[in-house]
């Protein structure tokens, strides 16, 4: 969705269209309540004009979207990918979201790994699934059939000498 209608340009265009739509009413609002440019409880930013407020909103949403993109992998993708370039390790679940089954695909590059452990946690942090997966060569492809209720789950994949890979899976 971030690559289509939730990209920054599209969101900014929508904000501009709503700002234009509300232009007449915002003028009446600030004539009646003269708070434009005034601190009102909990305001982080105080714009001196309506346009400054709109510009701040667009900047805040763009910054927040970037933070979400970087800190919630897989939320906006059809699959989750975590890549660590310094040791050429990649991890992917697809499809994500899924209903009954998903595929875990890992590639280890030059690093030797004998097996990995997949742990899944519900949103309260309770471990709901654990599986040890043998690594026969530098690639792993494992189909997982998970008997879990629909919801958001977090995973952690690791082994001795391997930095944990983490992410989110959505079961529909």
Can you offer a commentary on this structure?
With 172 residues, the protein is an alpha+beta fold. It has two domains: 8-71, no CATH class; 80-171, Sandwich (Immunoglobulin-like). The protein is built from three helices and eight strands, in the order αααββββββββ. It has helices at 8-21, 23-32, 50-71; strands at residues 80-84, 89-94, 101-107, 115-121, 127-134, 139-145, 151-159, 162-171. A four-stranded antiparallel β-sheet has the order 1-2-3-6, with no helix packed on it. Strands 5-4-7-8 form a four-stranded antiparallel β-sheet, with no helix packed on it. β7 (151-159) and β8 form a beta hairpin. The longest helix is centred in the middle third of the chain and has 22 residues, at 50-71.
């Amino acid at each position: 969705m971030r690559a289509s209608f939730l990209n920054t340009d599209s969101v900014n265009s929508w904000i501009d269209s709503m700002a234009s739509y509300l232009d007449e009413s915002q003028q009446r609002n600030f004539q009646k309540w003269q708070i434009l440019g005034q601190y009102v409880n909990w305001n982080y930013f105080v714009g001196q004009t309506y346009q400054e407020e709109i510009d701040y909103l667009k900047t805040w949403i763009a910054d927040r979207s970037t933070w979400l993109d970087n800190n919630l992998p897989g939320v906006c993708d059809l699959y989750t990918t975590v890549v660590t370039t310094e040791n050429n390790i990649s991890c992917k679940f697809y499809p994500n979201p899924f209903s009954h089954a998903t595929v875990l695909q890992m590639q280890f590059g030059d690093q030797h790994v004998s097996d990995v452990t997949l742990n899944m946690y519900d949103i309260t942090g309770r471990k709901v699934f654990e599986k040890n997966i043998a690594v026969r060569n530098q690639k792993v492809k494992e189909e997982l059939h998970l008997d879990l209720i629909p919801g958001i789950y977090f995973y952690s994949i690791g082994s001795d000498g391997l930095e944990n890979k983490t992410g989110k899976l959505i079961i529909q």
